[in-house]
Design a protein that fits this description.
Number of strands: 12
Strand order of the largest sheet: 5-2-1-11-12
Order of helices and strands: HHHHHEHEHEEHHHEHHHEEEEHEHEHHEH
Length: 408
């Protein structure tokens, strides 16, 4: 099959927010909300900053080995896990929720971008090792966002009565029936049987969605050395106990992020994320609910559960896995447990990360280089006229191929 591609400048698409466009073009004063420019020099600065941070590599390697136990890992994945012990090894990370069957196509784009960028950096800076990582947002409880795919113009939806974090939900008969529908539609297409075979191998009745996603993504990208990380993990979260304790007792993140948001708004930008007073959920088997402080006690919204300060700290220290960061603290958790130097995200993700640098500085955690993910729009043969009409007449939201990259 033959493909051709066109490149379109971001500003000609009419698809991106002012903050995303100005970040790409490194417009002042927006650059002050980022730590490093998207250049090779920026990567090197991110490495030097990361070297000053006391990274707990042994814990990360131990938990990755546990997560990959019983999984058919490629030689490159196994080697990359071992390389993480080396102080000259760094990660390039992208993150996404565990949509069933990977969900939207940009799930794949983000991972491929991380793989390619790590490969490029390994060539450009051979004195270091760079490893691509997919950080799974499996604690997301928005089932309506994650329970469907669109195939051949039809929405296929997983209907389940399960509640709580989607990653902890179980593969059931209804989800397996959905795979049968996918199989019926993909079977006549090139590689369709291969894809459905991978789905059936990964999504087995009784295992969790995060485990199924782990297997599926590993089967798709393991040959490239991609590491899949499930952060819903007691030992990894144990490293965040000091931050979580400060959040529960003092609520500093809300103040800091609101101040940064005001600075962005004063510079003419809309903020993407709004912090809560406490930016931690309480995570149980079938629920993920907000934590609120009221009259000297900490209450779990929609649950008959509350804690005194002594009880709360005992719960945190004994069961750190029960505390789940929201969008304000999730990145801080990611960058604490990974030796990361670059984060790849979509326009919305990049926008809310630009609200977080001061929060990272407050806790002494290195802020990564931010990179807007690559995107593509697929056209049928002879679709150039459709493309021109869409962009210059309707200005719909898309752009072609790689229009933004790190400038070496």
């Amino acid at each position: 099959m033959h493909f051709t591609s066109l490149r379109i400048p971001y500003r000609q698409t009419g698809a991106f927010s002012k903050i995303a466009l100005d970040y790409i073009d490194q417009v002042q004063p927006l650059t002050s909300f980022a730590a490093h420019g998207a250049t090779l020099a920026g990567v090197q600065k991110a490495i030097e900053t990361r070297k000053q941070f006391a990274s707990t590599r042994q814990i990360l390697v131990g938990e990755l080995n546990r997560q990959y136990a019983g999984v058919e890992a490629s030689a490159k994945v196994t080697a990359n896990i071992s390389l993480l012990k080396d102080d000259n090894t760094f990660t390039v990370t992208t993150a996404h929720q565990n949509n069933i069957f990977t969900g939207p196509l940009y799930f794949v784009y983000k991972i491929l971008h991380a793989v390619k960028l790590a490969e490029t950096l390994n060539e450009a800076l051979p004195q270091y090792n760079f490893i691509p990582v997919y950080y799974m947002g499996s604690e997301d409880a928005d089932l309506a966002e994650l329970n469907h795919i669109h195939l051949a113009g039809k929405k296929l939806e997983w209907k389940t009565s399960q509640t709580g974090a989607v990653g902890r939900m179980k593969v059931d008969k209804e989800l397996l029936q959905l795979i049968e529908q996918v199989k019926g539609q993909l079977g006549v297409l090139p590689h369709g049987d291969e894809i459905t075979s991978l789905l059936m191998d990964a999504y087995k009745q009784g295992i969790t969605i995060q485990e199924a996603t782990f297997h599926f993504v590993n089967n798709l990208f393991g040959e490239y050395g991609l590491l899949v990380l499930i952060p819903d993990n007691a030992e990894l979260k144990r490293q965040m106990i000091p931050v979580f304790e400060d959040e529960l007792l003092n609520q500093n993140s809300s103040i800091i992020v609101q101040q940064t948001g005001a600075g962005l708004e004063n510079a003419g930008y809309k903020t993407q994320a709004s912090p809560r007073e406490i930016n931690l959920f309480y995570l149980e088997r079938n629920s993920r609910e907000r934590t609120e402080k009221e009259n000297g006690k900490w209450k779990i919204v929609n649950r008959e559960k509350q804690f005194t300060e002594t009880e709360l700290l005992a719960e945190l220290n004994g069961f750190p896995e029960r505390f789940s960061p929201n969008v304000i603290l999730r990145g801080l958790y990611q960058e604490t447990i990974l030796p990361n130097i670059a984060f790849i995200g979509g326009g919305g993700e990049t926008a809310y990360w630009l609200q977080l640098k001061n929060l990272f500085e407050h806790y002494g955690v290195p802020f990564p280089l931010l990179i807007l993910r690559n995107s593509f729009y697929w056209l049928k043969r002879n679709g150039r006229r459709e493309l021109q009409h869409s962009i210059f007449k309707l200005r719909i939201s898309f752009y072609l191929n790689r229009t933004y990259s790190i400038n070496w």
